[in-house]
Amino acid sequence: MPDIPFIARAHSHRDSVAFRTATTKHTFGDLLDRSAMLAATLLGEADDLNETRIALLVPAGSEYVAAQWAIWRAGGIKVPICLSATEPEWEYALTDSGAGIVIADAVMAAKIAPLCQRLAVRLIDIDAVQSAPAKTLPDIAPERRAMILYTSGTTSKPKGVVTTHANMQAQIESLVQAWEWSATDRIPLFLPMHHIHGIINVTSCALWSGATIEPFARFDLPAILDRVRADAYTIFMAVPTIYVKLIQALEAASADDRVAIVAGFAKMRLMVSGSAALPASVHEQWTALTGQKLLERYGMTEIGMALSNPLRGERRPGSVGVPLPGVEVRLKTEAGEIVTAEDEPGEIQVRGPGVFRAYWNRPEASAESFDDGWFRTGDMAVRERGYYRIMGRLSVDIIKSGGYKLSALEIEAALLEHPHIRECAVIGLPDDTWGEAVTAVVVLKENATLDLSALREWCKGRLSVYKIPQRLLVVAELPRNAMGKITKPAVRALF
Ligand code: MCA
Ligand code: AMP
Predict the structure, then answer these.
(1) CATH of region 5-140
(2) Where are the alpha helices (DSSP H) in 187-305?
(3) What is the dihedral of CA 54, 55, 58, 61, to 10 degrees?
(4) Cα separation of 390 and 227, whole Å?
(5) For FRET with 54, which of 140, 284, 411, 475 sits at 20 to 30 Å CA-CA?
(6) Do domains 5-140 and 398-493 have the same CATH topology?
């Protein structure tokens, strides 16, 4: 059986640079050699990991990809976890996925070691792996499960989205074709590496094409702008919050700096926005500043990318374009009718080879999320003059902040642990920078007091930074319907 496609392709550009930083360069050949050694380490005496779940806690860069390829080459399932998550969040991902191994760099290994010890999970410090005896690696069929990504939804705890090698290949090939990736492309990588946007759209498409990635440990705006002005990139991909921050930075820069940086942006062949709605005003401001027309696309962890404005042709502000190659999209009304006319709203449903296999260990949730073979996204859209426009989500309990999908229910469950809070309702309120701001409306216990800074302090270590409420409103009682259930539209109306 041939190698998994990633590996087969990497052989054909062995000498090209896959990752470069200010001080290092790693070729595709380096990634192949390093991943073979790590795969042998993972396997030990075994011939095949047979879908052992392996959590990955390594910053973006060549070591992340070497570890990812090692997991796949050895027959494991990769479970990337968030570098900045809290210990309870890590524990949930490790126990829910049943991870047998955690791979971390030295810094993260020190942080997660106590948890691994408590859960009796093997911890591999990737920085300490310098050699391993060569080993024959197993054949991996495309239908094997390859990755579990945790995504928040309408349940209080995140669900594991399982994709196969074939699913990922379909997602990558669709984007490589639509956006005409090539080996001459160069892209910065500053997005988190536990979501599709960073993993598939940036890293996997670049590696598939033999292109070069420049990784940053975090969204380091000054460092990225320095590289933009040096014409380091041909493609740029980011969430709307980042474009808002870039606009603020350009407006604050001196006239000379602005001219130099804008020239770097203007030369790129493609700039993409996605993961959350890009306000038409931001789209237009960006064009006015740089001359670039952002290409907005729409996707989801369960399906990869589904809709995109065209590389060549009209990129319409406020719209997400048309179905990508290999992806089928339909709209279905609440009454169960398939929408055929323009201007009639419906839920976006998606079918195609990139659609995930199932939620990990959740057969009921998996079955409910499909409608006759079509994945139900929970997003509403309308087709106008041939292009889809996203109208919002069916569930008020899903919040998008800074490009992260958050469950209001998960945040509510955490806040209810607070000793002063009797009841709470969490909603997302519109925010110019973050898209939505996490907002908590709470009823306190008798004689208790609480302000925003005390609440935020208490949340640290319990919730990731982007889940911590930005706004707090204390009320005497929460609005309820006749059945006694809290009504979120009425909660929203309090603002
Ligand atoms: C951080 N802060 C926030 C938020 N996050 N404030 C309000 N709302 C938030 N969501 C605050 C922190 O408390 C901190 O405040 C300050 O901002 C800086 O925090 P830091 O984490 O350093 O922020 P940053 O590095 O500037 O991060 C902003 C970011 C990041 C780069 C936009 O949120 C990010 O990488 N988002 C992308 C997520 C992503 O890739 N999503 C894709 C999933 P203080 O200074 O007071 O301490 S969606 C997906 O994959 C689908 C398939 C798709 O379609 O793409
Ligand atoms: P996630 O589950 O984190 O992959 O987030 C997927 C969700 O992000 C989708 O269901 C949409 O609600 C939202 N999303 C992604 N891209 C866009 C976009 N261009 N416009 C509006 N919403 C988007």
Answers:
(1) 3.40.50.980
(2) 196, 205-209, 221-229, 240-252, 255-267, 280-290
(3) 60
(4) 33
(5) 411
(6) no
From the list 33, 32, 31, 27, the residue with the least C-alpha distance to 15 is 27
pTM, to two decimals: 0.96
- Residues with Cβ within 8 Å of 232's Cβ and at least 6 positions away in sequence, in order, are 186, 188, 214, 264
- C-alpha 106/C-alpha 103 separation (Å) is 10
Q: Please give the structure tokens belonging to residue 92.
A: 């949930």
Does residue 219 have its Cβ closer than 6 Å to ligand 1?
Answer: yes
**Rg, the chain, Cα only:** 23
Mutation probe of ligand 1 site: the residue of 204, 239, 245, 455 with most atoms within 8 A of C-beta:
239
Torsion sign, CA atoms 351, 436, 294, 301:
negative
Of the pLDDT bands very low, low, confident and very high (cuts 50, 70, 90), residue 5 is: confident
Ligand 2 proximity of 324 Cβ (cutoff 6 Å):
no
Residue type, 239: V
**Single-letter residue type at 374:** W
CATH 3.90.180.10 fits 398-493, yes or no: no
299 within ligand 2 shell (Cβ under 6 A): yes
Residue with tokens 């106590």: 114
Bridge partners of 421, per DSSP, are 444
- Tell me: the pLDDT tens digits for 353-365? 999 999 999 999 9
Q: Is 327 helix (H, G, I), strand (E, B) or coil?
A: coil
CA of 237 to the centre of ligand 2 (A): 15
**Identity of residue 433:** T
The residues spanned by each domain of the chain are: 5-140, 398-493
For 374-416, write each residue's pLDDT tens digit: 999 999 999 999 999 999 999 999 999 999 999 999 999 999 9
The position carrying tokens 């460092």 is 223
Distance separating alpha carbons of residues 390 and 320, to the nearest angstrom? 7
- Three-state DSSP class for residue 109: helix
Task: List the structure tokens of 7.
Answer: 């590996």
